[in-house]
Amino acid sequence: MNTDNLSVLGLTIDYGPYGWLEPYDPAWTPNTTDASGRRYCYANQHHIELWNLSRFGRALTPLLQAAEGIEQGLTVYRTTFERTYRELVAAKLGLETLEDTAGEKLLADLLELLQACRD
């Protein structure tokens, strides 16, 4: 999900290369040109989205009165993504929350187990 594949609405607009993540592999990327660096791999998608948004914000800076609004927007994205991700995972696991130390450990252990069992 690089910058030329994302619309202002936050939609992914590129249809290839793409693929399905069947066995859990956070380093997986369908893009053969990304195979060596894995910049756009599954585990990095939320970081790349934040980077894309920061580039968009930088492009808008000359049009805006205050650049700190862009930083505030990036902070909102980051906290909203993290909260929503944990809420969705908790719901999948039948839990109310993953917002404590035990929840964080459970999530880390689960992802580690999924990766270990992929083959």
- Hey, roughly how much beta strand do the residues contain? under 5%
Please summarize the sheet with the most strands: none
Helix residue percentage: 40-55%
Low-confidence stretches: none
Family: Belongs to the SELO family.
Protein name: Selenoprotein O
Cofactor: Mg(2+)
GO molecular function, one term: AMPylase activity
3D structure, described in words:
By secondary structure, the chain is mainly α. It has one domain (3-116). 48% of the residues lie in helices and 0% in strands. It contains 3 helices and no strands. It has helices spanning 45-60, 68-92, 101-116. It is flat and about 50 Å long. The two termini are 26 Å apart. The mean pLDDT is 86.
Nutshell version of this structure?
The protein is 48% helix and 0% strand.
Entry keywords:
3 helices, mainly alpha, 119 residues
Helices and strands, with pairings:
Blueprint (H helix, E strand, L loop, with lengths): L44 H16 L7 H25 L8 H16 L3
Helix pairs in contact: 1-2
